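Why does residue order matter? Because the sequence determines the fold. Keep that principle in mind as you read this record.
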Amino acid sequence: MKKINQLVMALAALAAAAGISGCQSMEDYRNERAEYAIKHFESAKYRELLEGKKLTLRECIDIAKEHNLNLQVSKLEEKVAHEMKTAEMLGMLPELNVNDNFTWRNNEPASSSKKVGEGGLTYGYSKSQDRDVNYLNIDLALSVLDFGLAFFNTQQAQDRVYMQEQRTIRAAQNLTLDVVRAYFSVAAAQKAIRITTGLLEECRNRYELIQKLGKKGQIDPFRAFDETRRFIEMEKRLTNYVRSYENSCVELRSLLGMAPSGKITVEDAYLNRLPDYELPDIETMEQIALFKRPELYEIDIQRHINILEVRKEIVQMFPQVRIFTDFTRSSNSFLYHMNWWELGIRAAYNLLKIPVHVSRAMAMNKQVKAEEKRSFAQAIAVMAQVRIAHANLIATKQRYDIDAKVNKAFAENLAQARRTVRSGDLSQLELDHIRLATAETEIERLMTMGNYYVAYYRMLNAIGINSISAKNITSIRQELEAAKRRAAKELELARREYNARVSAAGAKSDDSDIVNMAQKVVNQPLTNFGSVDFISIYDSSPARATKAGKTGK
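Structure:
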């Protein structure tokens, strides 16, 4: 007995030591964080992948997709989802339990019995069990309810794999847009540095020239102050372009998965010409976005997960049925049969749990409807993003046309001034003003061209695709047409319900002009909203309408 107590005490001490070793204090976390700080700081130095190479846009995007740490985390989470699906699939296997027990007793397991009706013992003491008994049991059991739940869990795990794949796709799309934005910031800043390096050095020499002209009396003190202020303002603006280069380099390097230190050189030949992108009509791009955006797939997948959750709750309303078979072997020599098989079925039904499952099923059913509404709301938001991105692309193109026109005019004026300028310090001073202003317009043109590239990739990001080509558009249109034919009945029903609501609203309204104008606004294209007479919509009185017509507002 003493030895047994010592063994129990030893096991308890071992368990306590294991529990204590698994606990961590705040000091432990601080030390661990310090080790990670050193390791991550030093490891970032070994992620240098460029070695002074001039990178193109395609190379930057490929490097980012391969080495960006956030995207790698998303890919690892995708692998985790795959493993979880395998684990849920293995949950459909039946239970297989193997028990092997050995018992030893210091006394004989003897017993006696006594008559019930009459007094006295029936027999003397006897035994039916050995002192040493080895009991082996192999149990194979299948729970029908657990099998059904594991089946639905596997389906949900597969849906979560699909969901994580869509999240990875969207993360790659957002990463591409961020890389493009940082890339053209670096490219424009590189060109700005080449343009402004010599000019800034000359500007610093012009301060002495202004002081010299002021002392000679060729310009008055007020003009000298004004000339100095003009040069300082231009120098500040041009210097800001140079300073933005370092920030853009840090951002681009971090997106590429490298240490955010040092400079990076990119190919800026993209800024030598304006690309001509061919885009389909806005409605086609909206339909493509509703078909390709990963966020919409996520909502659809989450809706199916909730549907499976409803089915799981329904399955749990059925009784718990367990089919089992086991093999038993005992070393007890007093048994008539020392080996035997057993087959059986157990059924259990907890009636008080049914209301719980019914309530959960109803709640998840409402959640399914909520996901349907969320899908529709997200679709409206996606279409709005497509229109905003399209409008931004057009506005950026228009802004570039203006900047290019201004830069061309300044360049022509500069060329003409160089041909007609006379020798002299004062004339040279005016010429330097024109040179600085022309350089500034050139940099603004380059910045706007970079923004035009970014606006195009933002358009692709809003649609949810990597590129636009005639082949891709044709293929997607065919899929959309096939889906439209499949949903023809639902679309016709929705159209009839809409027409019925419009007719009912028109019948209840006292002023039919308001309804007509509202329908006109609904049917009006988004690009023509500026020409709609909103005053007549809210106030259809003759005096108000006449006044609005006269003012043209």
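DSSP finds 15 helices and six strands in the chain.
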